Amino acid sequence: MTYTLIGLLISKVPTAVKEDLELLTSFFDALIKEPSSDLKGSIRSSLISMCNAYKESSKLSSILKMLEHYCKMSDNLVKQVTTHYLSYLFPADDARSRLLLIQSHTSSVGETNLKKILYNVDEVGNLVGKNDSTLLLPRFPDMVMTVVENSNQYDSSALLEIAEYLSHCLTLSAGLPVTYNTLYHPSKQTPDICKYLSKVYQSDANIIESYVKLMLQLIQIKPSIIPLNNLLVCIAALPIELKDLFIKDLNTIQKLFVSSNEDMRKLSGILYGISLSALDETTFDKHIKALISSVTDKNRNKSLELYASLYALSSIHEYRFFNSKNVPLLIEQDTFSSLVLLLDDTSPLIVGAACDVIGAIGRLNPIPIEERNKAFLIKKLLSISFNNSTLSKIRNKGIKCTGLICVGETSSRSKDIIEAYLEKTKHTKDIEIHLSIGDSISCAILGPLSKMSRNFWTLTEEEYKKKIVVDISIDECDKLADYFLNNILEKVNSEDHPNSKQACCVWMYNVLNECHTLTSVNQKLARIQTAYVALLTEKNNYIRDIASKALIQVYEYEAEERKEQILKLLIKQLSEYMAVGNSVKDSSGGILSTYKELCSLVTDLNRPKLIYKFIQLANYNKKKEPQSKLDIDEQLNEQLPFIIPRLYRYQHDPTPIVQTSMSAIWSYLVLDTRLTVDKYYKEIYVDLVKNITCPDWRVRISVCQALPSFLQYTGDKIFTKCLDLTIEAWTQLIRVMDDIHEGTRKAATSTAKTLSKLCVNECTTNTQLLQLLLPIILDKGLYHTESSIRAVSMDMISQLIVNCGEQLKGDLAKLIIALLRGADKMESPDLGALSVMFGANPNTQEIIDSRRAAEARTLSSSDVLSKSLLYIDESVIHDLIPLLQDLLTTNIGLPIKVATSHFISLLITQKHQQLNSKFLDKILKPLMKGITDRNTTIRKSYASTIAVITTIAKESTVNKLILSLKDVYMENEDESIRQTVGYSLKGISQCEKPDLYLGSIIPLIFFATHYKQPESDEVVATDKSHDIWKELWEDNVHNTEGVLSRHLDSVYEFLGIAIKSSSWAMKAQAARSIGDAANILGRHLNEEHRNRFIETIKTGLAGRTWSGKEFLLEALLQLNLSSSDSAETCKNEEIVELVFNECKKENINYRMIALKTLGELLEKLKIDRFTQTYQLVMHIIQKSSEDSDVDNQSQNLKLKESLFSLVGKAWPYTLATQVEFGETV
């Protein structure tokens, strides 16, 4: 902990210790000596924290010496700390610290990549400094001498890292970009490096000599590509000057001929050849004969050595050609013939090497064989080039060789080669092969004028072009170029094969770049441009990439006086292709759209020349092109207010290739997106809003995709300074969210959600925005047929209520009604369809409607409405109640009615204190009308709301409601409506004083519990209706007998009305109720009430027989069975007489019940009416015997059973009567 605190303290006050090296040394020593790993970790962290304190120290040289000492330690943590100090305290171009860094790292066991410590790598593959800054490396001379002056012995690993680092220092010191990958010589950079080495040698030969010795030392210790490559470029640059250093090591170099690494063999061969060229003639002749012998020896079996020997022979030939003009040819006809024979070798490596050597010889001199053999050689090379079974690498070498042998001389064979390639445009799709053929054709056209004829070690391409002397051979070049272009342009138009298109594109581009100075090429620039415009429509990305670059090259190579003409032609051609592209599907993957937008942009800018700049930027690839090659007109800055809005939209195009291209233009023109958008926000916003409903779906979707990022950059400016545009954007977004194109709909919905969040946040303080926004959301969004629009609108309203409830009070009533009216739009379309489909089936319809109602109560609007209750006060209620009344009575859909009644329930529950009786009365009127609605689900929903009202309403209101509900029950025989009445009464048991209303509701509930389902409906009958009345009875009655006794008068009154009803079912239900009451009360039913009930039944028995009339008899029987023994005798006689009359009815079923009732009465009352009974029985038996109908036999049998039962129960207790009828019976 102490070490950690010290480190933190020093990092806060670095100046206090920046000159104190003793403290630093003590910490390093502690790190070395400390045995505890935890404490060592703390010391290491503290040292890292302290590092910054010594950044400005004047004792950096002493610190470097100290670090040199600690670098030698084996402790890994110490090495980590020294690495950090060396990389942080000392500049990247300090040679000594870099050397120590390499040494320290290569000897440690850590996994840290040394290259990441020394430098970074950019997208192109070039080395850059830390944090992508400019690369800094020590000067090459300084680094070499620092390495040499170090007295330590390097191990092979360190020496190899040093060699690579030295090569980077050499490249950078020569003024060239440093690549991450190994730079093989000769290359484009080789001439500049050779010149730099010569310059350094002239100033201080010791530096180069030391460098060469170091590389020779490494090759001897650990042969590898890097030191061999470094040595090669030095020997190539200074062969004579350095010959004394490497002559003695020729054997070492020659030993590498048999290396297992192909590149090692090739480099050693080249190095060996250049080294031999510096020897005296005698020694040279000796070695060269050995080389030629190894090549021409037919019995050779060392292919590895032969491979290196071929490159040695080639490099000797090349060196002597450029440096010894007067010496005879090294490779004569016999030797060359042997090289040609190697093309048939079984080893692909030898065949490839032979191609390289033949090409190297052919590019400098006419090939030394007879004319007829030259044709054979070309034929052989072409067969290698087009042999698909041959390795691609070898085919490339064969192709390059055909072009190189045309460089050394001008002959008719060049045309033959071009013609052979033109016939093979469809042969392959390998882009590497096509690139090689393009190079070969360029060589064949230019011949000796080709850049391939230069000295690769001393001349760059630019230097060669300045140095070249144009002679009469230019005419032949023109003819060949004319022949090639005529044929290739014809193939572009006539051949549709993708391989052919790619070949034509690549070959023509190569010839355009290499041969544009030829008159024949310059005269065909317009045709070439036309061809490349056509190639822009290809699906192949590579073809389009080359075509776009070629268009720029055409303009660049055109004469100044014709540039305007070629520009107009390009705009016209692109526009024509755009017209075609609009009528058919863009097969290019969207590139036509890119150029369409670019043409439109430059036309609007009235700067057609910019099309080339935009094409260049649209195809700009950071990984392939350095930024310095791009040159944007400074006047373009003046057009930025017009360009920026469109480019901002273009880079969000849904087509990936357009998006990539436009983003490339944007990233080049705009250094800081946030600052640029902030500067041109109004112009961008106007463009986006203007194009949001553009006829082109791509434009619409690009706007929708651009808006979210734009909103992130602009903040509240779209509200404070562009409020009108924001409102317009909302209006148009709602339209686009219902777009015919699916992708556009989704993008618009996503954008609307983003804009919604920003608007809600702004509305908390911006009432103007709130007032402008609400009508759009309510009128255009909430009731829209598109579900996504409704969902966004609903969510926005919900957020507005939560965040801006107080500001919304004035509009809250309208807002709530709007939400309720939108309930049917939120319903699932499937449920609506099912409801229509099964509308004829009541039971199924009820199930579906119940599901619809449940969904209406749980929709997102319900959540919003629940949140709105927090902000409802008396003023809002005053505006809301009339609107709710209108919703309840208007002939609208089920979801709206259910949602409205559900909201009223919530309102009453949470805001009952603000609801007076006046408001409740207003609400009850439409609700009472609703409980007789045709739809069962609506009735139930209204009834539930009425039940909620009864829990808080005044006594007078509830009593009026009960009377109304009684009327509804008595006036409607539809049991589902009656069930609704039951649901409406459920709230009474939950009010504060339910006993106040028992006298009013007990008769109805008691009566309703005795409902009996008609027999015709039993199949589909349910117990739900009976259940609700049973539930009500159980909720309100805890002692049935006591409650009935207490409220018997009101029950009698209600049943008396019911039994007088014109409805038979009502009469029967009343009879069942009377009988049940008598059964429950039993002997507790006093005589007065019994007689009143009997009178009521007598009234009901009057008249003809009807279905259910038998229940009156059963009730009458129950009244007498429950009576006391002291009941009035005269009343009993009257009852018996009444039943006697009913036994005479024609309806057999009714008569049997009457007979049963009569028997029960006579038995219970012990009245002697046997004589009358006997006469009745005999009369009925006689009449039934006369009826011989087979169908009535079964019924007659039951009738007789009833008669005999009656005779038994009516048998008198009077002795005289027993004597009178004893024998008869």
Automatic annotation (TrEMBL):
<dbReference type="GO" id="GO:0005634">
    <property type="term" value="C:nucleus"/>
</dbReference>
<dbReference type="Pfam" id="PF23731">
    <property type="entry name" value="ARM_ECM29_C"/>
</dbReference>
<dbReference type="InterPro" id="IPR024372">
    <property type="entry name" value="Ecm29_N"/>
</dbReference>
<keyword id="KW-0677">Repeat</keyword>
<dbReference type="GO" id="GO:0043248">
    <property type="term" value="P:proteasome assembly"/>
</dbReference>
<feature type="domain" description="Proteasome adapter and scaffold protein ECM29 HEAT-repeat">
    <location>
        <begin position="808"/>
        <end position="970"/>
    </location>
</feature>
<dbReference type="GO" id="GO:0005737">
    <property type="term" value="C:cytoplasm"/>
</dbReference>
<dbReference type="Pfam" id="PF23702">
    <property type="entry name" value="ARM_ECM29"/>
</dbReference>
<protein>
    <submittedName>
        <fullName>Proteasome-associated protein ECM29</fullName>
    </submittedName>
</protein>
<dbReference type="InterPro" id="IPR055443">
    <property type="entry name" value="HEAT_ECM29"/>
</dbReference>
<keyword id="KW-0647">Proteasome</keyword>
<dbReference type="Pfam" id="PF13001">
    <property type="entry name" value="ECM29_N"/>
</dbReference>
<feature type="domain" description="ECM29 ARM-like repeats">
    <location>
        <begin position="173"/>
        <end position="359"/>
    </location>
</feature>
<dbReference type="Pfam" id="PF24492">
    <property type="entry name" value="HEAT_ECM29"/>
</dbReference>
<dbReference type="GO" id="GO:0036503">
    <property type="term" value="P:ERAD pathway"/>
</dbReference>
<dbReference type="InterPro" id="IPR016024">
    <property type="entry name" value="ARM-type_fold"/>
</dbReference>
<dbReference type="GO" id="GO:0060090">
    <property type="term" value="F:molecular adaptor activity"/>
</dbReference>
<dbReference type="GO" id="GO:0000502">
    <property type="term" value="C:proteasome complex"/>
</dbReference>
<dbReference type="InterPro" id="IPR011989">
    <property type="entry name" value="ARM-like"/>
</dbReference>
<feature type="domain" description="Proteasome component Ecm29 N-terminal">
    <location>
        <begin position="2"/>
        <end position="102"/>
    </location>
</feature>
<dbReference type="InterPro" id="IPR055444">
    <property type="entry name" value="ARM_ECM29"/>
</dbReference>
<keyword id="KW-0963">Cytoplasm</keyword>
